[in-house]
Amino acid sequence: MSAPAAAIAFRGTAAWRRNLRLHGWTVAVWLVLLALVPYWRSLSQQDLEFDLQAVAIDALPLCFAAMAQAVIVISGGIDLSIGSMMGVVNVLSAKHMIGMSFREALAFSLLILVLTALAGAFTGLIITLSRIPDIVVTLGMLFVWQGVALWIMEIPGGGAPLQYSDLALGSVGSTLIPNALVVVLVAFALVWLPLRWLRPGLAIYAVGSNRTAAYLSGIGVARTRVGAYMLGGVFTGLGGLALTASSGIGDPNAGVTYTLNSVAAVVLGGVALVGGVGGLIGPIAAALVLTMSKIILLLRGTDPNYANVYQGALIIFVVVIGGLLARKTRS
Amino acid sequence: MTAAPEALARPGRLRAAQQFLADNPVIVLVGVLAVLFIVTDIVNRRDIGEPFITWNQLSTTLLVAAPLGMIAAGQTLVMLTGGIDLSVALTATAAAFATSWQGGNGEVQGVAAGLAVGLGIGLVNGIGVGIFRVNPLIMTLGTSSVTFGLLSIYAGKPFEKIVPEIVSTLGSDRFFDYLPANLLLWVAVAAILILGLRYTGYGRMLYAVGDNPVAARLAGVRLWQVRVVVYALCGVFSALGGLLLVGFTANPDLGLATPYLLQSVAAVVIGGTSIFGGWGGYSGTIVGVLILTVLGSLLTLLDAEEWQRQVIYGSIIIVLTAIYARVSGTD
């Protein structure tokens, strides 16, 4: 009689542990975010609507950069060119959108997303065909895209239609919910969720956790990796468009910080750099935490340059802790 | 009957030649350098009506190349261990600032301050990579963003910038009209590195760690010590490069060494040092540095813009890594 009961109890704890192992980190990051909220509100002089807007707008490009990096890291790669590709999208869209109507701007955005998906697939193809490590190829692409951004626009300029900017800046109807947050959730639900539970998403996880095992179980490894870079390209494109919409201007250097910050958000969001682990919800929360910690520093009257220093130090700290924890769980 | 042995022998001889060139990439590189010199000479004659291959131009090429030679020296050592240092440019800039900040208190103090800053940043990198096993890319990107933040705070404050006499002599003077002073330093560093890598225990250890860290560890190498030291050395070499640069321009600014990040990686890759570690050396890097410098002169002659340089250097890194990986068979 006691044996089945024990088995059930055992199964119960196992499921509980499994959930903790799988989702504990993500939940913890969201809790950190929630814990930051009261402190942030106590520092701010503004009303809630304004504050929510400020965080959402500031976090929007980073959220997309983190999602792009997350997909690629889960597939076992890493993309150092995300920031400079966002810069390319930023200047390209700002240069052409300035005279467009809202509808034209939307259509143009779709075109840009197709282009960035192709660019991502191109990077992925170079990596899989040449068998050079991801880091080297994307480092090279980092400089190539930076050059392309400078080619399109040497000094900041351009713009976007007001309605288009409103996608990032406004809020839904008369509620407190910022549009930026809705945009991220919609992209997450439309692009990632359907894939996550179907073959392509599972293949990305399989290839990321063990390439040989994935190959032996009949998954097209190269195809999956190229697909992951393509998906990363879509999110990177969204990030670049978010830069245009939220800043209203194109700047060839606007994307520079996003490469490092996206890696930080991914690590902080519970995606292991070895691949195959984590999701996109954690990195989104991590992007919000990183943004809010920056805003808190600014609210406390810290010199913006110091805020950069703290953020760089925080990123190193997060990666160090993440590395130590990953080593502990593996051994 | 006579055709058969020949047909057999030809691919054999061809393969032997190919193997020889693959083992000694420096020979091919010197050839490339010579061709570049000749092309530049032709373009120079066409556009300006003067030859490029003159003693004066050769001397100038060496003078301009030396700072890159220093920075690429550190990068070579790090890449031999399978790492990479993306903080070299900002380390050089920070060292240049430190030197001109302390320059008023005596030459020794000025030079010591510059080198100490380089050593400090290098040690932080080394501790992160060697002890906490942070991915070198992320670690060095992190330290360079912290360094940039700190520099933009302190460099913004007005202070008297005095470049020590010895630094400006070393960075810009020429003996006997044609012999750049910094060449003396470069030759000394090159001799120490080339001989040191070949004949000292630490030099051999760098190759061992880069080729197979697990085997090196099992053979009794303390990986973390090798890594901490190699990043510290890289910091010092970058600082030396920064000193030569500020000795040349006599005025430190935040963008002093920015182009040297990409070029240092490119020079090492061109020089045949494997980006995966364990293969290569400093002699190839020297030729790589010279190739990049002459290529820079050529691009200036052709009125190339900054974006074109970025795209060219970025593509060089990807294409050459692919070629070397194919030739040496390390997929």
Question: Summed up, what is this model?
Answer:
The complex is a heterodimer of chains A (331) and B (331). Helices cover 79% and strands 0% of the residues of chain A. With 331 residues, chain A is mainly alpha-helical.
What features would you highlight for this structure?
heterodimer, A: 331 residues, mainly alpha, 13 helices, 79% helix, globular, disordered N terminus, B: mainly alpha, ABC transporter involved in vitamin B12 uptake, BtuC, 2 strands
Structural class from helices and strands of chain A?
mainly alpha
Q: In angstroms, what is the radius of gyration of chain A?
A: 21 Å
**Span between termini of chain B:** 39 Å
Helix and strand pattern of chain A = HHHHHHHHHHHHH
* CATH class designation of chain B: Mainly Alpha
Question: How much β-strand is present in the residues of chain A?
Answer: under 5%
How confident is the prediction overall: mean pLDDT of chain B? Answer: 85
Largest inter-chain interface?
A-B, 45 and 40 residues
Contiguous runs where pLDDT drops below 50 for at least 5 residues of chain B: 1-8
CATH topology of chain B: ABC transporter involved in vitamin B12 uptake, BtuC
- The helix content of chain A is over 70%
Outline of chain A: globular
Structural class of chain B: mainly alpha
* Order of adjacent strands in the largest pleated sheet of chain B: 1-2
Largest sheet of chain A: none
The rough form of chain B would be described as: globular
Count of DSSP H/I helices of chain B: 14
The gyration radius over C-alpha positions of chain B equals 21 Å
Strand count, sense and barrel status of the largest sheet of chain B are: 2 strands, antiparallel
User: Topology as H/E string of chain B?
Assistant: HHHHHHHEEHHHHHHH
Spatial separation of the terminal alpha carbons of chain A: 36 Å
